[in-house]
Design brief:
By secondary structure, the chain is α+β, with helices and mostly antiparallel strands. Helix content is 20%, strand content 10%. The chain has 2 helices and 3 strands; from the N terminus they run ααβββ. Strands 1-2-3 form a 3-stranded antiparallel sheet. A hairpin with an 8-residue loop joins strand 1 and strand 2. The longest helix has 12 residues. The radius of gyration is 13 Å and the shape is globular. The protein starts with a helix and ends in a 13-residue tail after the last strand. The structure holds iron/sulfur cluster (SF4). Iron/sulfur cluster (SF4) binds next to loops. The site of iron/sulfur cluster has 13 residues, from loops.
């Protein structure tokens, strides 16, 4: 998983585009929180493209690999239904998955 490590390092150090990312603090952006995890009405088109480019799906095709056991997952806060991901903004299903899944350490 060398490419995952490289990408994570790039993400955590910032990409230099000036955008703020809730993920850098390890907390999901509260303004993007919704009740249904497939409601992207508050998510920008560029962020939707970003999750698509990573191959995000709402239901994992690999039973042992899903967002809630991924190192990059941001768990839902108390009283909220959806978590988030360090790699992009917007709601994420616990049972979701993308090609950047990384085991928890
Ligand atoms: Fe984010 Fe992908 Fe991990 Fe889900 S599997 S938390 S979308 S990096």
């Amino acid at each position: 998983m060398g490419s995952t490590g490289l990408f994570l390092g790039w993400t955590l150090t910032g990409c230099g585009n000036g955008e703020e990312s809730g993920g850098e603090t390890g907390e999901a952006d509260q303004s993007l929180m919704v009740e249904n995890c497939n409601d992207y009405s508050k998510v920008s088109a560029s962020e939707i493209k970003k999750r698509e480019s990573l191959g995000y799906v709402e239901s994992t095709p690999i039973p042992d690999k899903h967002c809630s056991n991924c190192q990059l997952y941001i768990p839902a806060k108390e009283g909220q239904n959806c978590g988030g991901c360090i790699l992009f903004k917007g709601p994420v299903f616990e049972e979701g998955y993308c090609t950047y899944w990384a085991p928890q350490v």
